[in-house]
Design a protein that fits this description.
Elements (H helix, E strand, L loop, with lengths): L1 H25 L41 E4 L2 E4 L6 E3 L5 E3 L44 E2 L2 E5 L2 E5 L8 E2 L5 E2 L19 E4 L2 E4 L2 E4 L2 E4 L20 E3 L2 E3 L2 E7 L6 H12 L8 E5 L2 E7 L2 H13 L3 E5 L2 E6 L5 E4 L14 E4 L11 E5 L7 E7 L1
Antiparallel strand pairs: 1-2, 3-4, 5-9, 6-7, 8-9, 10-11, 12-13, 14-15, 16-24, 17-18, 17-24, 19-20, 20-21, 21-22, 22-23
């Protein structure tokens, strides 16, 4: 009996040693400490590879949960944190906190821009894009982003700083008419947006106020540009030695302020000139009379609000003493009643309160379009 017990013990020890050697061989890791080269086997369940079987992971009876896989005998998530597994068409591992294609979940794709933007007209929305210094980058849809599992829009910051407004569109608020200065400020129809401020057409925002840079000799053509002594007058944004009246006129609106400017200007006309030019938005070159006698007599007629007519360089120049001057090129007759030619050349800034028929340069002269009209004496 004693001998049988000793033999049984020796057999058990030999079996254990053999099993230990087998385990040591299968559990070897690579020289660089990486994954195992082979399967993990257990004589108790030799039909399973314990290194990769999620129902028998590392031990015969150890099962991973449904969201895990078995790697080297250990249960782990299929995707490394912070990514999550998506099945189907989105198969792969994704970070729901920052991926615009899977923002907050596998099926949540952040939209590429706002469909309402299809109704935005290219440009900055200002009513007269032809006025000097009218610029700006208008708007953009920006770049779709995902942050903290929520979709958003990233607006460009260089070279133009865009602002995201509630319609999910990025605006250049320094130049966009309906978003001027901020998302909630819209300029009037007679204004444009310049440097984030609403100014009358043709004006620019300089030193904290709106200034007519078409006529201001201290800000001629742009803020801070001062006309020199030999060219002291600012005409359409350019320094010149001419004595000039120029103003912006708006379709359908009376010209009260323009009339005040006209009266101030004619009172300063000198006694002698060599030439005169009438021009405007639709005829920037204009028509010129270079007869010194006719030019001087016309200046006197305008200053004194008297009638005068003469032919110069193929055109009839006529001033009628109604409306505090009505300067007309090629009229049918002196002070004609047929005074709405289209197109025509008429300047009558003082036609009266509430009357929008202030004339036009190479346009309709009654109810004319938005434009600048200019008269210069040299």
């Amino acid at each position: 009996m004693h001998r049988k017990l000793i033999l049984a013990a020796l057999a058990a020890a030999a079996t254990g040693l053999a099993f230990a050697c087998a385990k040591a061989s299968s559990d070897d890791v690579t020289d660089d400490g990486g994954s195992r080269d082979g399967p993990i086997m257990d004589p108790a369940c030799p039909q399973y590879d314990l290194s990769k079987d999620p129902k028998h992971c590392g031990a015969c009876t150890k099962a991973c949960n449904g969201a895990q896989i078995c790697v080297d005998g250990m249960c782990k998530a299929e995707c490394d944190p912070p990514t999550t597994k998506c099945a189907g068409d989105a198969g792969g591992c994704f970070d729901f906190t920052s991926d615009p294609q899977h923002c907050g979940g596998c099926a949540t794709k952040c939209p590429q821009g706002d469909p309402d933007a299809a109704g935005l007209v290219p440009g900055n929305g200002n009513p007269d894009s032809g006025i000097p210094m009218d610029g700006g980058s208008a708007w953009t849809l920006g770049m779709t982003t995902c942050a903290m599992s929520k979709c958003g829009i990233d607006c460009p910051k260089s070279p133009v700083v865009f602002t995201l407004c509630s319609d999910n569109i990025c605006y250049d608020t320094k130049n966009f008419h309906e978003r001027c200065g901020d998302c909630n400020t819209a300029c009037q129809s007679t204004e444009w947006c310049t440097q984030g401020k609403c100014c009358t057409l043709g004006q620019s925002f300089c030193n904290g106020m709106c200034i007519d840079t078409l006529t201001d000799k201290n800000n001629c053509g742009g803020c801070g540009t001062v006309c020199p002594n030999n060219k002291p007058n600012c005409i359409n944004g350019t320094c010149s030695n001419a004595y000039t009246y120029t103003d912006n006129f708006v379709n359908g609106q009376s010209a009260n302020a323009q009339c005040t400017h006209w009266q101030q200007w004619i009172s300063g006309l000198a006694n002698s000139y060599s030439a005169m030019t009438i021009s405007g938005t639709n005829d920037s070159v204009g028509i010129t009379c270079n007869n010194a006698q006719i030019t001087t007599l016309m200046a006197a007629a305008l200053k004194n609000v008297t009638a005068y007519t003469a032919t110069c360089n193929g055109h009839v120049w006529s001033n009628c003493n109604r409306y505090n001057d009505e300067l007309w090129l090629d009229p049918p007759s002196q002070c004609s009643g047929n005074n709405c030619p289209s197109p025509g050349y008429i300047m009558r800034a003082c036609i009266g309160n509430g009357n929008p028929n202030w004339g036009g340069i190479k346009t309709a002269t009654c109810g004319g379009p938005n434009q600048t009209m200019t008269l210069s004496f040299f």
